[in-house]
Design goal:
Number of domains: 1
Strand order of the largest sheet: 3-2-1-6-7
Distance between the termini: 13 Å
Helix content: 10-25%
Oligomer: single chain
Mean pLDDT: 76
Strand content: over 45%
Largest sheet: 5 strands, antiparallel
Number of strands: 10
Low-confidence stretches: 101-107
Radius of gyration: 15 Å
């Protein structure tokens, strides 16, 4: 996996996808474009992409994107992830607020980011009061130097 850092320059969303404009181009199987589409939900769970806003920096796995279609919704948070220079605490708080408002979920989470090494680890547990479902998510990133 090879990552490149981009800044989100625009954001347009509907019920199924979010289109993020970028400050550079990404190579897809059909050519280059300066935007990506990310999924709003996977199943009935909101994705972390809902918390990304204009001005946030993300790292995109450019080696994987070459084999994907440019209009395919990205649903894997490992392909488009926050940079350590973006506030991971702020991102988790935004996602928690989105989850609570959209699905009446009670969430708790923690994250650890090391600015020196670029390592990031986050975990989130939530309970949906309407369905009785529990969710647990664990994400870990290590920057290669």
């Amino acid at each position: 996996m090879t990552y490149r850092t981009y800044k989100i320059t625009s954001r347009n969303a509907n019920d199924t996808w979010i289109k993020f404009g970028l400050n550079g181009s990404v190579e897809f199987s059909g050519g280059w474009q300066d935007y990506i589409f990310c999924a709003v939900r996977v199943g009935n769970k909101l994705t972390v992409f809902n918390a990304y806003q204009v001005g946030d920096e993300v790292e995109i796995d450019i080696s994987s994107m070459k084999y994907r279609g440019g209009s395919t919704d990205i649903d894997n948070p490992g392909l488009v992830r926050p940079t350590t220079s973006s506030s991971n605490q702020q991102l988790i708080r935004r996602m928690r607020n989105i989850d609570d408002a959209a699905t009446a979920q009670i969430s708790m989470g923690r994250e650890f980011a090391n600015d020196r090494t670029g390592d990031y680890r986050g975990e989130n547990a939530s309970y949906n009061q309407h369905t009785g479902d529990y969710y647990y998510e664990y994400i870990e990133y290590t920057k290669k130097t």
